Amino acid sequence: MKKILLAAMAGCIVSAAVAQQKQKLFNGKDLTGWTIHGTEKWYVKKGELVCESGPDKQYGYLSTNKNYKNFVLTLEFKQEADGNSGVFFRSSIPEGVKISGWQAEVAPLNHHTGGIYESYGRGWLIQPKPEDEQYLKPGEWNTYQLKVVGDEVTTWLNGHQMITLKDAKIGEGTGFIALQIHDGGGIKVRWRNIEIEEYGAQE
Questions:
Q1: What pLDDT shows up at residue 34?
Q2: How far is CA 75 from CA 5, 56, 72, 106, 172, in A?
Q3: Residues 6+ apart with CB under 8 A from 143
Q4: How high is the pLDDT of residue 83?
Q5: Helix (H, G, I), strand (E, B) or coil at 73
Q6: So what's the architecture of 22-199 in CATH?
Q7: Cα(141)–Cα(78) distance, integer angstroms
Q8: Structural domain spans, the chain
Q9: Per-residue pLDDT at 116
Q10: Which strands, in side-by-side order, build the sheet including 176-181?
């Protein structure tokens, strides 16, 4: 009887772990669950999250209030104007708006969307192959997926794998997810359907 009970309990634990489904990071109404860093504009319009250059024309970030270690992040973006942005992971902003971490690039055509850049560190760690740049659809909605598990990072753009990278420093990293707006002014990017599926010790 005890063995049956233990097996049943174990089954419940496994079920609970498997039941960890995708969660919405953006509710389509407001910025609940997020924090603005800097003076650039972040707002919600018609169910979409919009980032836009402000009068200071500086870098700006919108970070999750929660840290995420191992996950698959899926979202859609549409670039307007310049469209230079990005998705940071395992990142932090210890002071001011100088971010520490890694960025999955979102940029205009032929500027390495899907590549991985280490801000204020080693710079570009990997860029997509030139022939893969064509998978970006300027001015249209693009589906972007970022998988970060352990020391391995993979990105997909509109269903096409852009890069895969193993890096020990990334493996040691911790922190939040953040959307970026590049400095220079004249930038506007729309985001929607931001969802995350976590992995961890519970799996």
A1: 98
A2: 42, 27, 10, 12, 25
A3: 74, 75, 76, 156, 157, 158, 159
A4: 78
A5: strand
A6: Sandwich (2.60)
A7: 5
A8: 22-199
A9: 98
A10: 34-37, 60-67, 176-181, 85-95, 98-106, 116-119, 123-126
| 106/113 Cα distance (integer angstroms) | 5
The contacts of residue 26 (CB under 8 Å, 6+ apart) are 33, 34, 49, 191, 192, 193, 194
Q: Which parts of the chain register pLDDT below 50? A: 1-19, 202-203
Q: Which two tokens stand for residue 201?
A: 């010790």
Q: What is the largest CA-CA distance in the chain?
A: 70
Alpha helices in the chain (DSSP H): 2-18, 168-172
Q: Minimal CA–CA distance to 132: which of 113, 152, 119, 108? A: 113
Please report where in the chains the tokens 């209030």 appear, as a residue: 65
**Which two three-digit tokens encode residue 71?**
């996950």
Cβ atoms within 10 Å, residue 177: 26
For strands 41-45 and 98-106, give the pairing: unpaired
pLDDT of 55? 87
Q: CB neighbours of 146 closer than 8 A, spacing ≥ 6?
A: 72, 73, 74, 87, 89, 104, 153, 154, 155
pLDDT tens digits, 41-62? 999 999 999 999 988 888 899 9
